[in-house]
Amino acid sequence: MAIPIKEWSKLEVRAVVRFLFSKGTKPSEIHKQIAETYGEGAMPRSRVYQWCTWFGEGRTSLGDDPKSGRPKTSTDEENTTQDDLISELRNWFDNLDVDFFRESINSLLSRWQKCIDLHWDYVEK
């Protein structure tokens, strides 16, 4: 059983991903080992897959790519992380087509109607 590491940096976790990926470890197993050692919040499964893809394409840098837009003004680690999250979410939503929202809402409505029609005994598979 792994001894959890409570203090870590994202560069450290990325280095572990790179190391394990270079040894031929599958991304799902890499995520499992990271979650066991660093905790579930260390790196989401999708991000492990993304980093494995980048390393497979020849990337060697563990650092973040430069970002466009206004430079960060906050120096506090927690605020910076929150600012990054808000910025990423805004960019993601701004780049979505209106049809994405329309289709998603219609999909929810149809599932809701199925639940009602089946007297709440409906699970989508």
Automatic annotation (TrEMBL):
Alphabetized Pfam families for the sequence: HTH_48
Organism superkingdom: Eukaryota
Coiled-coil residue windows: none
Domain Mos1 transposase HTH residues, every copy: 12-51
Gene Ontology molecular function: any one: nucleic acid binding
Region (Disordered), start-end ranges: 58-81
InterPro entries referenced in this protein's UniProt entry, alphabetically: Mos1_HTH, RNaseH_sf, Transposase-MT_Hybrid
Protein name from the UniProt record: Cytochrome c oxidase assembly protein cox15-like protein
